[in-house]
From TrEMBL:
Originating organism: Arthrobacter glacialis
Cellular location(s): Cell membrane
Membrane topology recorded in Swiss-Prot or TrEMBL: Multi-pass membrane protein
Gene Ontology terms for molecular function: 2 iron, 2 sulfur cluster binding; metal ion binding; monooxygenase activity; oxidoreductase activity, acting on paired donors, with incorporation or reduction of molecular oxygen
Domain Rieske: from-to ranges: 261-325
Protein name: Cytochrome bc1 complex Rieske iron-sulfur subunit
InterPro entries in the record: QcrA_N (IPR045603), Rieske_2Fe-2S (IPR017941), Rieske_2Fe-2S_sf (IPR036922), Rieske_Fe-S_prot (IPR014349)
Highest taxon of the lineage: Bacteria
UniProt KW keywords: 2Fe-2S, Cell membrane, Disulfide bond, Electron transport, Iron, Iron-sulfur, Membrane, Metal-binding, Oxidoreductase, Respiratory chain, Transmembrane, Transmembrane helix, Transport
GO cellular component: plasma membrane
Record family assignment: Belongs to the Rieske iron-sulfur protein family.
Pfam families in alphabetical order: QcrA_N, Rieske
Length: 342
């Protein structure tokens, strides 16, 4: 084994030899030569970089302040314009707050902190000697960052880092108070006409063809003077028409549909996105946020995704003029699941 009959090496030998030679040829290239940066040799350039880093931290502070101006300063008045204005302030504020800190730290590290390469041996960190060495390394790092020598950077960094989490605290505050009865009642009531969103024109049952879907609001919504956005957010409904034989109503719900026309809350029971996609062939409703899928033929039972409750159904019928109307409000709270539902 190893040679052909004519004395030439077998191919496996040739490969092994070639690989061995490659290993022999490989040499540790070592660390690249250290190149000094402008700030390493020119104190003015170092000062300039220090100011740039401080400015980036100040931009972060300004970003946080912009967030609070939007959060506390913009009064929401039931119009989309104020909502958009506030969201613009919040978005720009958080973006500047995070970008300022991030780019400031990166610039600081690249321009001012020592950038010499260090090779560290790997071994277990057990002995007291190792522990002291580790502490020494941390001390060296703190020392090398220059944070003690550069109070301008230190102070602006402290300001930026102290302020940056405050928007999150403000947003968490909005998780309360508990919804209480707010999600239990909507504008729907007996005789309330179903109308098209957004123009509010009422819908005749005869106009709803099999396979069609409508985005629906209560007819009285557009007449509201206050709280329109909130009421709309709770009352939006999807209306679809199927073959009546495709529906499988449970006991007590047999008359909640009219001639195959069914109405379900459009607010996803996961975290409240609008369920806006209707798959006509499969009779599935899809939430675009996290792909929860609801089966219309099974009273919008969840068949896929993170939602755990079916979409609440709105019982409907027609009035004397043939317009679709609600029989009552929803029989359960709409929207995401929350504690204290029972
Ligand atoms: S909000 Fe609908 S799946 Fe998450």
């Amino acid at each position: 084994m190893g040679n052909h009959s004519d004395g030439t090496p077998t191919s496996s030998d040739a490969v092994a030899k070639a690989g061995h030679d490659e290993v022999d040829k490989f040499q540790d290239p070592g660390l690249p030569p250290h190149r000094l940066r402008l700030a390493d040799t020119d104190p003015k350039a170092a000062k300039r970089a220090e100011h740039q880093v401080a400015w980036l931290f100040i931009i972060s502070i300004v970003g946080t302040l912009i967030f609070f101006v939007g959060y506390f300063g913009v009064r929401l008045d039931d119009t989309l314009d104020t909502l958009r204005l506030q969201n613009t302030f919040l978005g720009i504020g958080v973006a500047f707050a995070m970008l300022g800190i991030g780019t400031g730290i990166v610039h600081w590290a690249r321009a001012l902190m020592p950038d010499h390469e260090v090779a560290e041996e790997r071994h277990e960190l057990r002995s007291e000697e190792d522990r002291l060495a580790a502490i020494q390394i941390i001390d060296d790092i703190v020392d090398e960052t220059g944070i003690k020598r550069r109070p301008l950077i230190r102070n602006t960094l402290i300001g930026a880092v102290a302020l940056a989490p405050l928007p999150a605290i403000a947003i968490f505050r909005d998780l309360g108070p508990l919804p209480g009865n707010a999600l239990r009642h909507t504008l729907w009531k007996e005789g309330e006409r179903l109308s098209r969103d957004p123009d509010g024109t009422p819908i005749r049952a005869a106009d709803v063809t099999i396979g069609s879907a409508f985005h629906v609001i209560p007819e009285s919504l557009n007449k509201l003077e206050h709280g329109k956005l909130n009421e709309k957010a709770k009352a939006v409904v999807l209306l679809m028409r199927l073959n009546p034989e495709d529906l499988n109503p449970s006991e007590g719900r047999e008359d909640w549909a009219y001639n195959g026309i069914v109405a379900y809350s459009k607010i996803c029971t996961h975290v409240g996105c609008p369920v806006a996609l209707y798959e006509q062939q499969t009779h599935h409703l899809l939430c675009p946020c996290h792909q929860s899928t609801f089966d219309l033929t099974q009273e919008c039972k969840v068949i896929f995704g993170p939602a755990v409750r079916p979409l609440p159904q709105l019982p409907i019928t027609v009035d004397a003029e043939g317009y679709l109307v609600a029989q009552s409000d929803f029989h359960e709270p709409v929207g995401p699941s929350f504690w204290e539902r029972g």
